[in-house]
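To: structure desk
From: M.T.
Subject: fold request, one chain
Message: Could you run this one when you get a chance? Sequence is below, nothing fancy, just the single chain.
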Amino acid sequence: MSSQNPIIKNVVHAGQKYISIADGSKAHFHFQTWKLGKERILIDDSKKIGQKEPMVLVIGHKFKLEVWETIVKLMAVGEVASFRVKKELVYSYPFVSKTLRDLGQEQQQIKHTCTMTLHTEGIGYSDLDDLIRNPCDLEFIIELLKVERSDEYEKEVWQLDIKERLELIPTLKEKGNKLYGEKKFAEAEDAYSQAIAICEQLMLRERKTDDEWITLNKIKLPILLNYAQVKLVQEDFYAVIEHCNTILEYDKDNEKALYRRAKAHVGAWNPNLAEEDFKRLKAINPTIGTIVDKELEFVKKLRKEKAELDKDALKNLFLKENEGI
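Reply: Done. Structure tokens follow.
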């Protein structure tokens, strides 16, 4: 392979008519990776490693192994081609390979690789460790299965720009509300969680005192409140308490947050804290006094029942101890 030709292509099987692949498109392909040298050695086959599924590459999003994007853009759908690539373009391949192999080992302990372990222990695969120590030219045999334009598939969040992410937040919130109304609580939780994650990702770009951060937080809190309600229905009481604490940190008189936290304190058996929240709620909004009084009576009843249970348990323990004398 000459220095003037860092990539040499040979068509194994012709595909459809060539159409240029635009940025944002998704390319689906199977691949084999061969190590070139005195012997030609198979390193990876996408049909046998990891999840045994085609590789999916989003064009224009700076994939770690940039040469793959270059060679895929030279292909037509249905084509099978061999690409011999100089070692200078494939130094990152061992790390890409490790990631793909690890995808099939989710139930096993996946080894974390940092700079220290890389030098002392390698990355967990002897053939890839050897490739790191002794870089060489590689051959990729690529079968391009299909290409989806950016308007033909639903983008993942990481592919969206800031404007698109902001527009997605209310959509996810409404989706969560609809699913909650249909009592599909796990699905509603997922929708709310995605919306909250987008808010928090965007908030990381701003300082807490910036208007943009404050605006994003105001968008996030009502979604977090809905998320807390889902967690309350699922009886994940400590999560409800945590999320309502966050809401009340910025909106100390939020009635729904106080009520949901109080209910969660009852479920987690924190009766004193539950009573505090219910009484505060009644002080903020006396018009719901009747509802709050019923809740306080319920807490009082639970206290009495627990006291009786504790009394009986202590009595039984005393009797057992006497029997043993």
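Reply (cont.): The longest helix spans residues 289-323. Let me know if you need anything else for the meeting.
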